[in-house]
Design goal:
Elements lengths: L10 H6 L9 H8 L16 H12 L13 H5 L24 H16 L4 H4 L5 H11 L5 H5 L11 H13 L9 E10 L2 E10 L1
Antiparallel strand pairs: 1-2
Length: 209
């Protein structure tokens, strides 16, 4: 009998342990067929599998996991056999679910750590000879966790395609208009993320609540 994962939201961990998993991989096919939507927003109550689904998308699209068999036997394998999109893209994954802080200053430190962890997954930025010196310097500042808020605000943007930032900026504006900020006060960093082709686009801002 398969074990039921409790407190586990990592898709790979569930698959490798042969844990009980409610197959939601058809979501991948739905997203790929929806050619006219550039930004997808998943709104669900707590404990409804949002983190697991995002983890699933990461493992499916991320080129760093090429050759995995975690989706064998799941619905997506029947819907998209030999899918050229599988593990064919760079993916930026940022979770704020554990970023609980009491002050903006603490949150800024937390974001600095998270951005550093993300940048460490893209060593080619520092290694590529064609990368401008200014971008290389910003990369090193983020890696070393000495980046101030203005640099953190654009940190994800440095990993994205400039032509797509308008799409991400629109996503950020839609987030601002929703009631996710109810009860929050002071400053915070906000990010809107969009994907098109093989490059992500990120827009960000420091806002007053």
């Amino acid at each position: 009998m398969r074990a039921i994962p409790i407190g586990v939201d990592d898709f790979r961990e569930i698959m490798e342990a042969d844990g009980y998993y409610v197959d939601k991989t058809a979501l991948i096919d739905h997203l790929l067929k929806d050619k006219l939507t550039k930004v997808h927003q998943f709104v669900r109550p707590r404990r409804f599998g949002k983190s697991t689904n995002l983890s699933m998308l990461d493992y499916y699209f991320n080129m760093r996991y090429a050759g995995n068999d975690w989706f064998d036997g799941l619905e997506i394998s029947d819907l998209r056999p030999d899918d050229p999109e599988k593990n064919a893209h760079p993916v930026i994954s940022l979770s704020l679910k554990d970023a609980y802080t009491s002050t903006y200053e603490e949150f800024e430190i937390s974001m600095g750590i998270r951005m550093s962890d993300i940048y460490l997954k893209f060593p080619e930025i520092a290694e590529c000879g064609s990368v401008p010196a200014s971008l290389r310097k910003r990369y090193e500042d983020v890696i070393e966790r000495r980046a101030a808020a203005p640099l953190l605000k654009n940190a994800l943007g440095d990993l994205s395609d400039d032509d797509l930032r308008a799409v991400a900026a629109d996503a950020l504006e839609q987030i601002r208009k929703m009631d996710y900020t109810h009860g929050l006060r002071g400053k915070t960093l906000m990010y809107g993320i969009a994907f098109s082709g093989k490059r992500p686009a990120i827009a960000s801002d420091i806002v007053e609540m």
